[in-house]
Amino acid sequence: MAVTDSASVTVPAPYDGEARESVARDSAVHEGILRRQSARESAARTYARALPIVPVRARGLTIEGADGRRYLDCLSGAGTLALGHNHPVVLEAIRKVIDSGAPLHVLDLATPVKDAFTTELFRTLPAGLADRARVQFCGPAGTDAVEAALKLVRTASGRSGILAFTGAYHGMTAGALEASGGAQDVRVTRLPYPQDYRCPFGIGGPRGAEIAARWTRSLLDDTKSGVPRPAGMILEPVQGEGGVIPAPDAWLRRMRSLTEDRSIPLIADEVQTGVGRTGAFWAVEHSGVVPDVMVMSKAIGGSLPLAVIVYRDDLDVWPPGAHAGTFRGNQLAMAAGAATLSYVRENRLAERAGELGTRMLGQLQHLAEDFSCIGDVRGRGLMIGVELVDPEGAPDTGPSGLADAPLLGAPAATPLPAAPDLAAAVRDACLDRGLIVELGGRHSSVVRLLPPLTITDEQAAAVVDRFADALVAVARARHA
């Protein structure tokens, strides 16, 4: 089947002998690379298992594989590619540094490229932080920045405990994993993260968020809670890997008030939500919250590895060398990042993401009316999740049966059992139709859409159409 998008030509079907030979050759290259990857790389590889493609060219939303097929990429490097693949302003910024003869590796020395990046980054920060902020360049990945943030608040407070939330994901290094959902560490206290569809209190909505906030307050103020005054609280304004769950604005303001009143630094993990993704430049801006520490990576490097933390100057008490990283001076990433930050800001792509995301959410919610396997559609801006469920399964009341007995107010919609097998089948069917998506959520049953902020209206319509077609195909196959 030929696959197209609004920015590319159709990949032709092999009608003549020469075309057939070319397709066979491309296919052999594709299969050979995948076979060698499977034989050589570790069992820890993830995306490659679910997405057996070999990208060789890319531009904007479109990827072309070694087998000649084209795909609409709604994974975007797990949210890294704010401007999509190989955006001209990013390529030009990289070429300019290379052609200038500037050093590419400078540790933490000052350079014009670094100064330009820092200036542009500070220009985008929430009001109330930029005028008293400090920045620490970390290792190349977001998890390195999380480690730095945890170390910073522990050093500044003299305390060791951390407050984190169920369903969180902060990275793969030891400290970041400790603060992620599913890990167990005595220094990390788990708090309920509010959500509507699978509310831990069986009620959802503002009342569920209020109960979650009161739970946190009680834990902090009860001298017998077993939780001593922590060094900090870390949260995601929208849980990404946890299933695309936006934090209610009122709840987030409560977390800010609770931590501020008790001199507990608040760390906002904006690794995936930052740089316009959610409809604001930084997701905390939706609620008007100014955190004490912001963790940033992914899109700030313009597709190249870069990670920083930005924090209040009074927390800057660590001695020289307290946190370092050999590759924290990546000049190409800083140039690409400065160009990306500037382009998003000047072209108001955050606002565009909010408008287009709202439209796509509406279209997907309308789609849910025709597909009983869609349990919930949620998100913010161009960070969208579709949770797939088993429509024939018994209602999922959870271990405590709270969905059958909501604590207060009107009950939330009783969730149906998660359907990870169905979600995997839909992901595969999307790939067959030239659409790259990935799964997330506590049960890997949430189809996640993270298109670049430069996606056009026509491409957005194509994404929804291909997703709908994949749902129809999977539904037919399951009832055949």
UniProtKB/TrEMBL annotation:
It comes from the Bacteria. This is Diaminobutyrate--2-oxoglutarate transaminase family protein. The lineage of its organism: Bacteria, Bacillati, Actinomycetota, Actinomycetes, Kitasatosporales.
